[in-house]
Model the fold of this input.
Amino acid sequence: MPFYNPIPPPTPRIIITEHEDNINTVHVPWNRNILAALWIPQFFFLLLGMAIIPYEIDEIISFQTIFIGIIALGNIVLMATPLIEAHHYATGNLTPHYLLKMQRYIARWVAGSMVVIVLIQVMNSYKSAWGVVWVIIADALYLMPFMAGMWYAKKMVKETGESKDFSGDVETGAVRL
Done:
């Protein structure tokens, strides 16, 4: 077979850093179990929110429908963030400040969308006050994994001594030696 030329498989590149000997790296004490306990519920809660949100619509064509559609599309986009964070963790370049930034984005989006949902529920004529209270309780439960993610990211930023100006972040190269 003269035309058959198999392509050799790529050589895997594994970068091993010795944190004790290399002064250019900072060891971040990530707890893999906590990260998994954050990312899995966040992914599925965003998926659940995207699936449940269309049931909040009272009228077919209205501003409520537009806002609900934007929220559902935002949830679809944000479902990728736990996967992106997990990829950064797997490749070894997940910094506490990056995790905090991503968790803040997710938490702000979810909190803002919950405010819009509660306002839509309040404006619906068929909802009673108790119905709105149950929506608020469900939304508070929905926010829990996102607030927990932000709490853990803040805790890791404090433990590693990173500041907001990246002065302790070796990943950006802004470390003063």
